[in-house]
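Handoff note, outgoing to incoming analyst
You'll be picking up this chain. Sequence as last confirmed:
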Amino acid sequence: MRFLDSVSQPRYNGLAVQGRDPVKVDISGLKAGVGLSSEHAFHLPFIKGDGWEDAGFSGPVDIQVRLLNTGEGIVAGFHVRAGCELPCSRCTRDTGVSLDMEFSEEYRQEGTVGDEDSPYLTYDGDVIDLTEAVRQNLLLNLPMKVLCREDCAGLCPQCGADLAQGPCSCGQAGEDERWETLKQLKGTEEGGRDRGRS
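Most recent structure output, in case you need it:
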């Protein structure tokens, strides 16, 4: 089993790290028999412009993958670690997020007729490109809500000042104009009760 464009690289969790972007593996040896498997590791630097800018990946992505010939196709079991920067949901400040996930994908030779209820990816020839599977699963596992810290005060709804830096100058911190009508209604009711007592 060999990597495309293989070069001498450091080892990651005991596996020789080879390859950059895209993540391609030669599976000609695996296709020799059912039950054959192989393990591989990749270390991607994710420099801006490499096609991974969908989210602000701030550090390298480490990928371990085990490929298994099941007879019907090649099942890839992934373990991926990555770091990215996402805006805080309250103050919009860039916040570091660590991802550590496991997932699997099935690959079948292009033109293979398979079960429509069992989705799979396709490959052509003796090479499987794992890049898109990694990218899609990274994006699917990004958190919907990110906080730079649990007690983040957020932004002033009036002037947009970062309240983590202290009170804003407009004096409206914490006020929300959507409650103004309710406050006026409450004041009217209280005034009516006061007149009724007099």
